[in-house]
Design goal:
heterodimer, A: 59% helix, globular
Chain lengths: 340, 197
């Protein structure tokens, strides 16, 4: 028999037989690219320490994935960008001034415990970066809540310690927040541009929205989760956010502060850990928004986005079960007939 | 006696979500891991467990307040509560075998396990310790039962999903279940401080 060249053989595989340019690694690297503006703004405001933390987080994540897969003798998939993305998200969710071992532990928990032990990309139940961040927050509550005041001067090493806008809102109320930022317009602009204390990558709403617009343009994320997430949160902030009276809260502050934008567009929309049916995604997003505001307004922590995403991740399999697609051409057996 | 509905709602939410027995106090894990392999048994167990929890909480409350307090034998509460719960579970075991044999064979051994479950003993003890009223005890029992049901159903859905995952061989089954429980507990710490009773 004549030698058949490998590429001329017919490939037989299960459906779907879709021809598309899209691959996992292409999508993952695009998401990484879309987070670049946020990372740059973080570096601009928080200086070398932020760059240092981000780099350590990414290197640890990729290294953990490589070592684990080598140890398990499975295919090494560090080039698909998913470990890089997890590391980047862990880094973006850290306060700027953490010591070097914090990103190392966070990335390790995210990659090894939350992702690889479940069977790697595609099987993890929880969002790796959110789990890494939550693990760090409850293990090192002090280190994870030292926030630095943003400085545009890149070389200035020791910035002042301060509280996040949400922290001020929680502890001292809206009046104090106004006092710090001046008037309302100034408050909104500062929050929107990212000139405020917070995690490295969550501060600048503008930079994150640029990245999110890129993802929408490429069709990698749909509107369902971000809109239902932020819509529910805004509604709850408006109704219950005010002091003493209903319908007196300020939804805009809650939307553009904390990790809301980063969480709603980049973390809750993770393909693996959110429901795959659109109706389910609406419920998932609404649940995230509800829980976030519940924790922010009533809970012990000033910020609840990470926990809300993790809690809704627990419910993802149940939501998926509830919206099973109908099997085409299959008729449900009549309950009376089966009893006979 | 005026009923304070806010207090009751707080009790139910606190017992089911914020101080969830499985995820924050790590009680009742034997049943939790034993029954959560399949959704069907998990749902059956949740219903049985919640019912048993409420009835045993109210029975224990009656016995504690009308028999043990007047006789001044409250130091015997652990033994008495075990007896009450075990007797009641045995009775419901017999009734279920006659009334719903299908469910009985599915839950079989676990129904007997309920009688020695730590949550079912913890609830009457906490009720007695906190001096809850009858309605409050019932609400606490309901909340604990619902919290356990929630834990079981979440866990069953995740474990059924994990059946298809390529979990490394040493971690298949129970070890993975422990890790999942740890991660769910991590998520549930977000609720901490929500209601302080």
């Amino acid at each position: 028999m004549a030698e058949i060249k490998k590429e001329h053989q017919l490939t037989v595989s299960v459906s779907p037989h879709v021809k598309s340019e899209e691959t996992t690694s292409r999508i993952m690297w695009s998401v990484n690219l879309s987070l670049l503006p946020a990372a740059l703004i973080g570096a601009y405001f928080f200086g070398p320490r932020a760059v240092f933390a981000l780099t350590i987080a990414i290197i640890t994540a990729v290294l953990c994935e490589h070592l684990y897969q080598r140890g398990m003798k499975s295919k090494i998939t560090i080039n698909d960008g998913s470990a890089f993305l997890t590391g980047l998200l862990v880094g973006l969710n850290l306060p700027p001034s953490v010591p070097f071992y914090i990103p190392v532990i966070g990335s390790f928990v995210a990659i090894v415990i939350t992702k690889q032990l479940f069977g790697g990309l595609g099987f993890n139940v929880f969002n790796p970066a959110a789990a890494g961040r939550a693990f760090l927050l409850i293990s090192f509550p002090k280190l994870m809540t030292i926030w630095k005041e943003p400085t545009a001067a890149f070389v200035q090493m020791d910035a002042k310690t301060t509280a996040t806008p949400l922290g001020i809102l929680k502890e001292e109320g809206i009046a104090k927040l106004m006092e710090v930022f001046g008037d309302k317009t100034n408050l909104y602009t500062e929050l929107f541009m990212g000139h405020r204390a917070g995690s490295i990558g969550e501060t600048s709403t503008l930079a994150l929205l640029i990245g999110a617009a890129f993802l929408f343009y490429r069709g990698y994320i749909s509107w369902h989760i971000p809109v239902s997430f932020m819509g529910t949160a805004a509604a709850m902030a408006w109704v219950f956010g005010g002091k003493g009276a209903l319908f007196a809260g300020d939804p805009i502050i809650h939307l553009i502060s904390g990790g809301m934008i980063l969480g709603a567009f980049f973390m809750a929309t993770d393909y693996v850990t959110c429901p795959s049916v659109k109706k389910g995604q609406l419920i998932f997003g609404a649940g995230c928004g509800f829980l976030t505001m519940l924790i922010r307004l009533k809970g012990g922590y000033p910020e609840g986005v990470m926990f809300a995403i993790l809690i809704m991740n627990c419910f993802t399999p149940i939501i998926d079960r509830g919206f099973k697609t109908k099997v085409f051409g299959f008729k449900k057996p009549d309950s009376k007939e089966t009893k006979k | 006696m005026a009923l304070d509905f806010t207090k009751l709602m707080e009790l139910i939410i606190s017992a089911s979500l914020i101080n969830n027995f499985v995820f924050t106090r790590f009680l009742g894990l034997c049943i939790f891991f034993g029954v959560s392999k399949k959704m069907e048994t998990a749902v059956g167990m949740s219903i049985t467990f919640t019912a048993v929890m409420m009835i045993s909480a109210s029975l224990s409350w009656l016995i504690f307040n009308y028999v043990m307090v007047p006789l001044d034998i409250t130091f015997l509460k652990i033994i008495v509560f075990i007896g009450v719960v075990a007797g009641f579970v045995q009775a419901s075991d017999t009734i279920m075998r006659k009334v719903a044999p299908g469910l009985y064979y599915k839950l079989g051994i676990y129904l007997a396990l309920i009688s020695t479950n730590c949550i079912i003993l913890a609830v009457p003890l906490i009720n007695a310790g906190e001096k809850y009223s009858f309605i409050e005890s019932l609400a606490f029992g309901l909340g604990s039962g619902l919290g356990f049901a929630l834990a079981l159903i979440i866990m069953a859905s995740i474990r059924e999903k994990l059946e298809l995952a390529e979990v490394p061989a040493p971690f298949k089954g129970l070890p993975m279940a422990f890790i999942v429980t740890g991660l769910i507990a991590l998520a549930f710490t977000g609720f901490s401080g929500l209601i302080t009773l």
